[in-house]
Amino acid sequence: MEAGSYKFFCPGSECDDELTFPVVRHILSQVMTDEELTTMRDRISDNFLHKRDTEIRQCQVCGVNWRKDYTKRWPGHRNRVVCNTCSKNQGRMVEYCWECRREWGRGGNSYKCGYPDCNWEEEQLRTLQTCETKKIGNVPDCPAIRACPRCGTLIHHASGCKYMTCSCGCQFCFVCLKKKRLFLWECSSHGTCPIVPRQTALPSPEFGLQPYNLFRAVLGEYMNWFISLFRRQNNDNTAL
Length: 240
Prior knowledge:
It is a single chain. The chain is built from five helices and twelve strands. The protein is of the alpha+beta class and 240 residues long. It has three domains: 1-51, no CATH class; 58-118, no CATH class; 131-222, no CATH class. A hairpin with a 6-residue loop joins strand 3 and strand 4. It is globular, with a radius of gyration of 22 Å.
């Protein structure tokens, strides 16, 4: 906890299972007072809230915690967090910046809060450049944290395969960063895809398409899928 951790793991040499907080609390209750357990719980919560890739932010005015809303239509608007508590207390809609947690400036747009000293991009890039590496599948030395290629949200790879689904709905490969196109992955699920180095820039937010362009995009994706399916079947028949 002193190092900023909020998770507990079994100390056994051959076991790395994560221990739930109720289990940890039950164990420590034998040697800690209720006051010490409460202090520990608050420290764990504080560590979680201050981790760089958390999806929770605390309003600096009222102290209420809010989760990032990924249901908003425009990815850029997700950086604008409405504090319902402050809005109710002040009788107006109060929005603050998801990154620097200051009230959204009048000079801001749909993506940035308008404060020139808001350095959230630099902080995220620093995280991407300094995060640890790990082996994902059969690919070693892959960065453990990636920025979603659609919305730019930082995602930490904890376990599992290389395919990732962001909270915004984007599905992509954690190794080569290629996005899934409807039903098909652009990289093989069994072979080794080329690893993309550490990201040095955040992706520009992909804003929604107009209905006509959206129809063309979806139709194009379906056509590409049918063409690739036809080619695979044709190649199989030729092989036979």
